[in-house]
């Protein structure tokens, strides 16, 4: 009877090991392979609870969802010998975990292989088009063809490539500097042209304004001369009429005007009785 508790403990321990080490769970976003002594079995396990032999078999899990991979930027040459920097990404998924494990082992290994394949196909197809076609008109067709070819090449690794896209297309730094230099020179040329045209228009406007000013001043001077002449003629006529009507009064009035214009404020003048101006008969 003293050995029974020890036996029960051993049995419980064995059962605990079998339960904890013999059963495994696969999440709904995963697939799994069972490795027996390092070799994968042919069965692929889906979501749920499964059993394996403890200590002899172990489980490898794979993500069953669509995975994203962003490639590093690389240069390529178009058919018109223009260098461009391609920044692309790919969307892919594991469709055959057994084949994937045998060929790639892990996701980082698959991404490294995918990077090489995508870049080689992109470089080959970009080399068949001009820079303008790659950037705008034929971009969608290039991406579709690259996706199909890369998917065919990666199918033997248990991988399906769903989409390959170019996120950004840039020029190499030395090309950017040359293009920016040409753009700056073109803008400076246009600026000089606009300044020259502006100065020409400014000179024309000033000349026209000066001409109009001269014409207006000449017309004003002519009108002033006419008015002044007419005023002088009218004054002479008035003087003549006054003289004819009262010559002595007219002479006396002229004498007063002469004195008024000759003598200013606080002026002193000494005249004798014989002075013609004081000897007027009035």
UniProtKB/TrEMBL annotation:
SMART domains: PHB. InterPro entries: Band_7 (IPR001107), Band_7/SPFH_dom_sf (IPR036013), HflC (IPR010200), Stomatin_HflK_fam (IPR001972). It is found in: Membrane. The keyword Transferase does not apply. SUPFAM superfamilies: Band 7/SPFH domain (SSF117892). It holds the Pfam family Band_7. Signal peptide: none annotated. It comes from the Bacteria. Gene3D superfamilies: Band 7 domain. Residues 21-183 form the Band domain. GO terms for cellular component: membrane. Keywords: Membrane, Transmembrane, Transmembrane helix. It is a single-pass membrane protein. PANTHER family: MODULATOR OF FTSH PROTEASE HFLC (PTHR42911). HflC and HflK could regulate a protease. Belongs to the band 7/mec-2 family. HflC subfamily. This is Protein HflC. It comes from uncultured Desulfovibrio sp. The lineage of its organism: Bacteria, Pseudomonadati, Thermodesulfobacteriota, Desulfovibrionia, Desulfovibrionales.
């Amino acid at each position: 009877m003293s050995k029974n508790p020890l036996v029960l403990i051993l049995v419980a321990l064995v059962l605990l090991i079998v339960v904890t080490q013999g059963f495994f769970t696969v999440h709904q976003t995963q697939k799994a392979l069972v490795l027996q002594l390092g070799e994968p079995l042919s069965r692929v396990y889906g979501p749920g609870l499964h059993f394996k032999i403890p200590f002899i078999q172990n489980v490898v899990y794979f993500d069953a969802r669509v995975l994203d991979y962003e490639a590093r930027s690389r240069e390529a040459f178009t058919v018109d010998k223009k260098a461009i920097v391609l920044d692309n990404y790919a969307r892919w998924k594991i469709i055959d975990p057994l084949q994937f494990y045998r060929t790639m082992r892990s996701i980082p290994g698959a991404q490294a292989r995918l990077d090489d394949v995508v870049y080689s196909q992109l470089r080959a197809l970009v080399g068949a088009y001009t820079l303008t076609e790659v950037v705008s008109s034929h971009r969608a067709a290039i991406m579709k063809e690259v996706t199909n070819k890369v998917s065919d090449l990666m199918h033997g690794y248990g991988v399906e490539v769903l989409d390959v896209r170019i996120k950004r297309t840039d020029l190499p730094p030395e090309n950017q500097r040359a293009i920016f230099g040409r753009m700056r020179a073109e803008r400076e040329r246009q600026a000089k042209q606009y300044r020259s045209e502006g100065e020409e228009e400014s000179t024309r406007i000033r000349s026209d304004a000066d001409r109009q000013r001269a014409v207006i001043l000449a017309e004003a001077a002519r009108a002033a001369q006419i008015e002044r002449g007419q005023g002088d003629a009218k004054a002479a006529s008035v003087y003549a009429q006054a003289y004819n009507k009262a010559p002595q009064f007219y002479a006396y009035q002229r004498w007063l005007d002469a004195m008024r214009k000759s003598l200013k404020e606080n002026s002193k003048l000494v005249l004798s009785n014989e002075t013609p101006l004081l000897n007027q008969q009035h």
